[in-house]
Amino acid sequence: MDPAPGSKIPVPPNRSLKILTANQDINKRKRAAPASPSGPDAKKVDNKGSSSPPVFKAQEETWEQISEEKGWSLEDCLNFKLLFKKGKGAMTDKTKMVALSQHIKCLRAAGWHLFSLADQREADRASLLGQLQTEQSEHAASRQQHAAGVQELQIQIGNLKDELCVLRMKAASYIETNGTTGLEAYSGGCQNKVAEGLKESAGLREVGAALQKQVEQGQADLKAAADREHWQAQDLARSKDQVVSLQQQATHLTEQHQRAQTYNAQLQEYNGQLQGEVQASAQAMSRLQAEKNQWCEDMAALRGKVLALESQVQSAQGSAAVAEEARQNASSDAGRLRSELTSLGSERDSLVQDLATCQKEVQQYKEHTGKSLEALEQETSRKAQLQYQNKAQEEINAGLQERLAVAEAGVRQAQSLAEGRAGEAGLLAQQAAELRSQLAEATGKWQEGEVLRRRLHNTIMELKGNIRVFCRVRPLLDSDIGAGPQSLQYPNSGDLMGRALEMSVASTVPGQPPQKHDFAFDRVFAPAVGQAEVFEDISQLVQSALDGYRVCIFAYGQTGSGKTHTMLGSPGDRGMIPRAMDQLFASANAMKEQGWSFEMQASMLEIYNEEYKDLLGKGPPAGKKHQVAHDEDGGTSITFAEALDVSGPEAVATLLRQAMRQRAVGATAMNERSSRSHMVFALRLRGTNANTGIQAHGVLNLIDLAGSERLGKSLACGDRLKETQAINKSLSALGDVIMALANKESHVPYRNSKLTYLLQPCLGGDSKTLMFVNIAPSADAAAESLCSLRFAAKVNACNIGTARSNVK
Ligand SMILES: Nc1ncnc2c1ncn2[C@@H]1O[C@H](COP(=O)(O)OP(=O)(O)OP(=O)(O)O)[C@@H](O)[C@H]1O
């Protein structure tokens, strides 16, 4: 595609352009000009450019080729101006560069052509001048010759006239002397001589006339040659002017080309820097991840230590309590024993007093009254009894004293034990407090790291562009064995490892080698790659939904290529949707520590034959239809459709099972249980951080698209034909929307299908979109695989803007 005439070459914005002065001199260029019109610096251009706009030629063309190909005259070429559209639909810098280089090549070819014309004219002029000079000298020689001949002739005529006079005189004297006799004969002879002389004179005149004619012819030739020379000089001057203006134009274009190359180099450098930043960010992220893991391990170890110490503290506190209880028991025993001892002491004192009184009384009795021996004996036995009682009492007292001493020793022991335990408990409590503060510090660091990691991830995703394409090739199934495998190669080293796919397709022309098609995507998963590894690559994207991003992941591919397997999987080999739910709920739980709480609502819609169908509810009342509406914040509401609160992955799994039962499943010639509808699983996340007041509203759309097979191949008819047409319409509308976004067109045709209208907020530039292109590896699916890969390559080449998180 040539750029429109009259275009201006745009200067890239915000770029300082160096004006190059080298190699701009026309004379230098002239000196460097080769015999061949392709020029000395004509470079071979790789013919790998896209089919539109301009296609590179493998070799520079001559002006004749260009003129024949484009139907251009030199003036057409000189007057041609490049026009590039601005704004929406503008060409990329690369495309402009290609157009510019191509036009410069045309101008260069025209310049070389004009140079060669000028050289040719110069050579013609020189040869004409040479010819003219030869002719002039020939003419001058012949003029001289002619003049000499004329002179000789005139001398001869004069001689003849003299002779005639002499003869006339002789004749007169003869007549005078001899009369006229014999004169006639002599006169006849003389006349004959005169006639001969006249004849000779006429001949000489003819020669003179011929010579005169030759002279005139020579003069006319000379004039014509002079005219021709003048005309050629004018022509040459005009050509030189043209050459100069062409050279100026070529110089100007070369300058612009060089500026564009400089700009391109700057862009490449910038791109390199960005890639460096991406790598540095990725490294920082992996470092952070490693630190985070280390922190997690440290935290787990600390938690273990804290738990062990806490249990030690608890057991120490338990034994301290037991010791305290024993101490209290012992001290209450001691108190009781002391009071018993005191009461026994007072009893003994009273007995001692009684004894003393008795002894006194006996003494008094003996001394003063002299009472009977019997009374004395009674008194004595009473005294002995009292003494015995006193002794028993003293023994009891001693026993009590001993018990008291034992109890006091027990109390002292319990007290020292309690003091020891209390010290230990204090130490342990101190250790526990230290560990708690370490834990809090580590948790803080981990949280900071987590925030940084997520910010880095989002930056990386933004740098990578917000639409990404992963290609997944499923393994050969038993049912594919008959058809055999396609020829697919995956580079296993270098830059493209894990990112590229080479497909060889047998040529339709017998004897021709197979055609090779190379594709590169963000990731390519070979058949052996399992669900866990695939999920690892999308887990960060899924995580973004918690950070308030709108995320859309969809699986595209022909029937039976593995879309449902990738998105849903099976109970033993779970796909992206259940794994995403596990991760989201686990992360939401972990984020509680940072003050986050999340509410999540799930909805599941099917788009079948260009009609919405709610897979979780009862559907709209009779005569009504589901209507989709989008608000300014990018929120989507669907009338009569259920959006259910979900609190964990199990709840989502139950809803998924319920939805799957309702999903329309039909039979086609290609896949017995082929899904004939698009299934859209949407999870709305509303997060609030109680500490910071931040709110994050994210959406995760996970979509299992219907098969993209072509009508002819699916052998569809009747209802199946209608289904296939509806599917193809919506898939082609999806492609149109992506292309319109990529081309920054003013109108994006979201309303052309129910699928694109539903996904409008998730496709419209500020969301994160990932497309899985699923490939069936059997040979009979090769044509469909090629179509899918080409579509995916177009999507991969798109940059639909920068994702924004919906955080308040
Ligand atoms: N990566 C894989 N590993 C193992 N088996 C797979 C893989 N991908 C797909 N399959 C198997 O291939 C068959 C077709 O896959 P699936 O139903 O997912 O295709 P589909 O593209 O969703 O088809 P449709 O468009 O009809 O829904 C299934 O039996 C599935 O189990």
TrEMBL record:
GO terms for biological process: microtubule-based movement. It comes from the Eukaryota. Residues 466-798 form the Kinesin motor domain. It comes from Apatococcus fuscideae. GO terms for molecular function: ATP binding; microtubule binding; microtubule motor activity. SMART domains: KISc (SM00129). This is Kinesin-like protein. Belongs to the TRAFAC class myosin-kinesin ATPase superfamily. Kinesin family. KIN-14 subfamily. Residues 236-305, 348-403 form a coiled coil. Residues 23-57 are annotated as: Disordered. Keywords: ATP-binding, Coiled coil, Microtubule, Motor protein, Nucleotide-binding. InterPro entries: Kinesin-like_fam (IPR027640), Kinesin_motor_CS (IPR019821), Kinesin_motor_dom (IPR001752), Kinesin_motor_dom_sf (IPR036961), P-loop_NTPase (IPR027417). One of its GO terms (cellular component) is microtubule. Pfam families: Kinesin (PF00225). ATP binds at residues 557-564. The keyword Nucleotide-binding applies.
